[in-house]
Amino acid sequence: MEETTAPAPLDTALGKFMAITAKSTVAVIIPLYGYWNDIPDNPADDEAFYTVMSRILPQRGQASIHQLILVFVAHPQSIPHDPKNPRSIGNLLLGYKAAGNTIEVAVERDATYPEYIKEGMDAVLDSTKASFVIVLNPWVLIQEGAIDVLVDRVNFGDNAKIVSGFNMKSAIQPEELDKFRTNMPTEEWDLSLNFLGMPRYVAEMLKLDTGMKTHKFFERDIWQRMFSTGFDVITTQRLPIFPFDFPWTSYETKEQFDEDRQLFLKKWKFDIDAKYTDD
What we know:
By secondary structure, the chain is of the alpha/beta class. It has helices spanning 10-22, 46-54, 89-99, 113-127, 146-154, 200-205, 215-229, 254-268, and strands at residues 25-31, 67-74, 102-106, 132-136, 140-142, 160-167, 187-189, 195-199, 232-243. The protein has one domain (22-265): Spore Coat Polysaccharide Biosynthesis Protein SpsA, Chain A. Strands 1, 2, 3, 4, 5, 6, 7, 8 and 9 form a 9-stranded mixed β-sheet that branches.
């Protein structure tokens, strides 16, 4: 009689799955949109940027589960750089570049936020073999280890192929973010580019429309594209985030917003409940 091999226990199977996930290369696109040294109300605060970046990179003495590739999209000539301040954004970028696994993508000063994202995405797909693609706005606080949680969630095996962080700003203070835990995390159909991840094949199938000039309509256009292909796009409390204030209306004009509304209506045949605000 031919011998058969018993199936591996569930714990073993999950362990192998996690081991495969742990070996993944993850590209993190960080759009330095609006981080310009000559704008009085820009969000280019050195300490805030340092704090946000410290949640991505492993702390001293800790190993990173994934191999990370940082993809900074910026207008290089406008990045604040104080040679006397080691934590100025320009000096921090030099440090990340010296450490390796960093890509710099230059864009024009007048590039829109959607163009920042598309240029970063194109660089990941053209220049890396990353298995997962993440977007993180540099004014958004995430929990330590959130990159690992995001990769695991998009690997979960259900129909959710783009996963976003859940905005907790109205519920908690930033110093409470790391303590936030829930046994029954809420998950909703929504999309936010504040903190978002997807498998590589999803990034390859996305056709980002930079005809959209504003972040709200760009986000909703991505949502609608994925919905039309039959995939779910969710935001989850497994990934709580705290976005700092960002002055969107200083960079995206009301005229652009109104033009995007008409473009979205023409393309998808319905309107969305969106207002021209800094949200």
